[in-house]
Amino acid sequence: MSTPDPYAGERLKLSPFHPRQQALNIRDAWTSWNGYKFAEHYYEAEYEYFCVRNLCATYDISPMQKYQIQGPDAQTLLNRMVTRDVAKVGLNRVAYCVWCTDAGRVIDDGTIFRLAADRFLLTCGSPCTAWLERSAYGFAEVEVKDLSDALAALSLQGPTACAVLKKLGLDGIDAVKPFDIRHFSLHGTALMVSRTGFTGDLGYELWIEPDRALELWDALYAAGAHYGIHPYGETATNMARLEAGFIMPGMEFNEALKTVHFEHDQTPFELNLGWLVDFNKPHFSGRRALLEEKRRGPKYTLTKLDVEGNRPAEGGSRIYGNKRCTKAVGYVTSAMWSPAAKANIALAMIRTEHRQGALWAEIYYEKELRQYSRVAKCTPLRKPFWAPPRARATPPPDY
Amino acid sequence: MDRYDSIIVGAGHNGLVCAAYLARNGQRVLVLEAAPAPGGLAADREFHPGFHTSIAHSIGHFSSKVAGDLNLAAHGFTTAKRRLPVLGLRLNGEHLVVDGDSLAGVGADDAAAYKNHRARMGRFATTLSPFWLKTMPRISGGSLADWTTFGRIGFNLRRMGREDFREFLRVASLPARDLMDEQFSDAVLKAVLSWDGLIGSKLAPRSPNGAVPAMLYRMAEAARGGHSIPSGGVPGLIQSLQRAAESLGAEIRCAAEVRRILVGGSSAGLAVKGVQLANGEQIEAARVVSAVDPKRTFLDLVGVRYLDIGFTNRIRRLRCDGTVGKLHLALSGLPEFSGLPQPNGRMILAPDMDAIEFAFDDAKHGELPVHPVMEILMPSLADASLAPPGQHVLSAQVLYVPYRLKGGWNDAAGERMRERAIDAIAQYAPRIREQIIHGEFLTPEDVALGCRVTGGHWHHVEFALDQMLMMRPTYEAAQYQTPIPGLYLCGAGCHPGGDLTGAPGHNAAQEILR
């Protein structure tokens, strides 16, 4: 007889894929995400990153929050909540979205899957239950259901991803276009596949009921054995997404509902996501504020920087408008040496009016316990740091 | 389809005031009222053949500016020489009389303290009175006018002098209980003087923050809180407003229930288009002005799909539960209250402040008050036409009656409440039951359904610090404009608040015409 665990409520939950991931996590490098035990890395982050870029690798997105929004009012609810026009999202298509407070500050970003005329799946990084409850108030004919624990999901990313899924027996997977959803059957279980991901590369996300998660894992790893399939953790994800120019909560933006200080959160325009804001919609939450923001211009603009030298401008380096570092014009949100771009890259929030001028980053670094700093010239980039054609190609190149 | 400049939804007194001002400025105005007659909570109610009253049974601080601007006297409205004293009845058959500055029936200490209290409250009321007829400033991004108003409030407070300013800050948020206990000793006097700080709100003598603002609000006009019954009763005010509005060109349609406020949308955003009636008829207008309470306006008539999510949540969270029940008795003759020569005032039946507090305690837990307290009026004494010859109408505001009764309201609960209220009256007027021809009791739920007002709340939105001034009903709708272009509010849910004042209707019209 075992005694009850007095800390049961405080222990991390285990993902449906955990038994396999635990076996592979030889460093025992765990962190947590939404209450789930979550791999920071398995063997070594850079190694995992190169698997993503050169072979294929799996990332457990089961801890992501998943909500089903269903009913005749489902589209109206979502269209009022997010800035994009959900009416334009076709059946079995996915749309990347942000949603904002009344003041037009970003609460979170996520994806909306249209699974039927009146049924959607909303996925996002942080719990959204309270905001969805507020958003649903006043709509008679809609049901919001939290599927976070009821749906296992695994992201498969990298150049050989399509080949692995073909080998798995998913006929027609090579015809699936970016942001398409296709429904398959795996050993008699419904398997939903979307051509989505967070790496900027060719990739898919696989959705299945939790009881069949290990079965999916085993079949996938069997199919991927000769295609270099590996698991990757949070650190490698963060590298890949930065090269792709994707934003991350807690890095590029501070979720508005968790922001205390005035305007320490961001608007979509500040995050360079103006293309997600559809003013042709007569109304959505935050429209009035965002219209005003658009007219006035964003205070800051998220900017891609090519930083001189090879020292990453990590740790929230400040950006200056002059080499003497007397005129502060912004701050770095994420930075790394990019192996794919062979460049020292950074995302930075720059005061919009200073984006055209000279930009200098003050970079702090440590060398054997001694602290140093240097000033590096930064060049703003318009295009993504890294965007391989295979990410968009249909069918993707075969291996 | 006809197109109006403004459609007013709801012909309560604020809707009529707003309509009259807009019409006076040359607008083509249509007022739509769901009930068969205008008036809302002030509408005439024939609760038994030949016996008339209204839910609001007297007039306290109706704006003299509105009465003057709209020339209501010419349309039959007057309160002059009709002031009602306040009578505090004692269980031993004695009573005290508060009549403006004079007080009789109490000890010398209390009489002296009353003089000071009255003078001080008068000074505070004078300081605040200019702001009840003004649009409140926006909290941020305000215009120069907004900041000027802010500044003037501060300046007026400071101008009271150091003593009064300090006392104002100390007293403004005091519970009624503390305010009374530090000045008076007579238990009935304390209950009587607290009354206007409490009635209509979900507020007991020991509740902080709300009582003094309510007292000062109700002392805004020259009568300094004195009530009166106009000729024709309170509905007489409605008739004069209706005549004034119509003579200025406003059109008033009754039995025309607005089902939806129509909002159009394009890439240019939202804009009000008009209204749709319950019978399906659509009427177009450049703007719609809602005298209906904010919850009903936004959540039912407009619909959340046109509102931001945070704004919707604030409207949803507004506290709107009414606490006042209404007893109407048709009497075969004038009731005899022990020791009272004539029941010709606002009679307060509350032996002490604890009685009020305990009645509140019952109600706040969703129970009927075991021993209700109340204010009684005899409208038929002021206007004999309100009852058949020789007979009388008794009207009582009964505290505290919960809107959300545990287990819900039903006929039996309503009857139980009516009997408890009559029993309470019988303690002061022992023969009252013999005179009753007919009696009805209106619960807050009855008021909510009958008058189409959320929670049956007198003030539409609880008159509390967080729902006052530039927070009334909530920011982004506190300057009579709403987030939807062309949609305005003009009811009691706006600054300055409820009661029969005409101020929200007046202020909304000023804002629309600006």
What this model shows, in words?
- The complex is a heterodimer of chains A (399) and B (514).
- With 399 residues, chain A is of the alpha+beta class.
- Chain A folds into three domains: 11-64 and 150-244, Probable tRNA modification gtpase trme, domain 1 (Gyrase A, domain 2, 2-Layer Sandwich); 65-146, Aminomethyltransferase beta-barrel domains (Alpha-Beta Plaits, 2-Layer Sandwich), CATH 3.30.70.1400; 299-383, Aminomethyltransferase beta-barrel domains (Elongation Factor Tu (Ef-tu), domain 3, Beta Barrel), CATH 2.40.30.
- Chain A has eight helices and 19 strands.
- A six-stranded mixed beta sheet of chain A has the order 10-11-12-9-3-13, sandwiched between helices. Chain A has a six-stranded antiparallel barrel with strand order 14-17-16-15-18-19. A five-stranded antiparallel beta sheet of chain A has the order 5-6-7-4-8, covered by helices on one side.
- In chain A, helix 2 (45-54) crosses helix 7 and helix 5 packs across helix 6.
- Chain A starts with 17 loop residues before the first helix and ends in an 18-residue tail after the last strand.
- In chain B, 34% of the residues lie in helices and 19% in strands.
- Chain B has helices spanning 13-24, 64-69, 108-128, 144-159, 162-171, 176-181, 187-198, 211-218, 234-247, 294-302, 309-316, 353-364, 379-382, 411-426, 432-435, 444-451, 503-513, and strands at 3-9, 29-32, 45-48, 51-53, 83-84, 86-89, 95-99, 102-104, 227-228, 251-253, 258-266, 269-277, 282-290, 325-331, 346-349, 373-377, 392-399, 436-442, 487-489.
- In chain B, helix 1 runs parallel beside helix 9 (234-247), helix 1 packs parallel to helix 17 (503-513) and helix 7 (187-198) packs across helix 8 (211-218).
- Classes of the chains: A alpha+beta (399), B alpha/beta (514).
- Chains A and B meet through helix 3, helix 4 and helix 8 of A and strand 11 and helix 11 of B.
